[in-house]
Amino acid sequence: xxxxxxRKFFFFLTVSSISVAAQAQDGAVHQSDVVLADSVRPTITxxxxxxxxxxxxxxxxxxxxxxxxxxxxxGADATRVLRRTxxxxxxxxGGNGGFTGVNLRGANSQxxxxxxxxxxxxxxxxxxxxxxxxNLLLGTAGKFDILRGSNSTIWGSDAIGxxxxxxxxxxxGFLGNAEYGSRDTLFTSAAGGIGGDGYYAGLTGSWYxxxxxxxxxxxxERDGFEQLALGGQVFVDLASNLEVFAHANWSEGDLDLDxxxxxxFAFSDTLDTQETRRLWGDVGFAYYGNDLTxxxxxxxxxTERDNLDADGxxxxxxxxxxxxxSLRGEYRAIGPVTVAFGAEQxxxxxxxxxxxxxEADIFGAYVQLGFVMGRFAAHIGSRVDDHSLFGSNASYxxxxxxxxxxxWRLRASLGEGFKAPTLFQLxxxxxxxxxxxxxxxxxxxxxxxxxRGKGTHLALTAFRRDGEDLIGFVSCFGITGGICAxxxxxxxxxxxxxxxxxxxxxxxxxxxxxxxxSAVYSYVDTEDxxxxxxxxxxxxxxxxxxxxxxxxxxxxxxxDLRLVGxxxxxxxxxxxxxxxxxxxxxxxxxxxxxxxxxxRVENVFDSDYQTVAGYASPGRGAFVGVxxxx
Length: 630
What we know:
It contains six helices and 35 strands. It starts with a helix and ends with a strand. It is about 5% helix and about 60% strand. The chain is globular.
């Protein structure tokens, strides 16, 4: 019976639930607080093998950021939390709500698989098929599970640079917060739920609005953003080893845009706007026996966008939708040997202004052998995917982890990644139905002491990723034959090769009672193997230094210093983006057992910087708020 309970516990983490019995005692659960069988439970990742596994039992490089850390950082902007991840950089078109692309180890933002509660949430109607983090605010997020490195063996298409899985926030009782600050910014969020023996139901939501600042660095007119987001989850035990579950997330946002108005057609102030509506969710079941674990689900993701001019007329509209049936499992074959397996069928379609509608489907299946004995763990697996338009693709992966000494661990992973051509790249007026998937091979090796966020933590990882058949846009000027037939303005082709290599370093120390100092640093050397130039918007050097102090009477103080080196805005390395430093300071103080006040100053020194040429970034801002728990 104990084996069933332990496996059920791991699976609960996999599908983003929270241990309800423990939550009921104090209203919230954090990873470092949970005790299982009189011992502190290990940190669990889903991104390594598709089902919950302890980070110590995988050779993959994984970072977990939980709700406690999200609350300590404060605010709605996901990039302020994500920048604590090694190897991660981002570029943003303006402020919150503006398109935000996240790069992992130098891979472009379209080569990072993003999941919410295990559901793929990239927009199939986007030309590159990537995910826009600008519309992901932190009010409904419970945890970030971030894997760095190619892992298409488990996840299929898009997992070239890595995988980011975001869990919906779940609480028992009721928690709420409201904050107000610079640029007339208001952010409120709430979460609540009920749970008992064999069930849990939770709901979370947030509202955000800001007057913002001019998206165009040369402009003066403010570009605001508003968003309402809702999320929910339900888990019900039908038997001691059978559970059904459901997740749902919905958001609607309105963003002011700048553009290229006549007569100069230079990037400057306009009164254009963009409306974005997103819906994600899944329903499924989980079975956890002594030797066999299964998880089956149906998932749906839909993203609609409308661009409007100053008169409210629609200038562009798109709708991308995906549906997926998935079955994952793990069988404990004999002793320390396990067999993980899975199969998925996905259907995608899109419609967009000025482009024909399109649809495609892809089927994938994988198997992975695992061996765990004591502090040694190893996995090896392979996968085959079959796409309705480009055909089949095979990928493999392997990892190994070995613990030694008191709390040291050596880990390594080797994996392949691929990204299927998007529907726009295949079927639009610029499309090429002969495109093949982008492919990558990645290798990393790392040495780690301790665990992130507690005690003495040290980690050093070296990595390399080589990509080929990368898809780029090619000009058809003066060419009428071959792939340019009927494509006078250009088309897409597999023309590029790229390489990214570097090191990632992490450190954390408890300096004194209540005082912790942490840092991450990344050196990411990227190269376009066709031209020999650096990849656009990929800084070589980046790091974050963050410190937290908690006094005996409950006051907490914190600081985050982000340091980013120079990069180039274009593939030709002609437009330089200067490096920058941004310092944030924060504080929080409980005034009763259930109420806390907090505040922060972002960009203390009012640094003027750009992550995309011509687009402004936020200056100094001050914010105050209150949190309450019932």
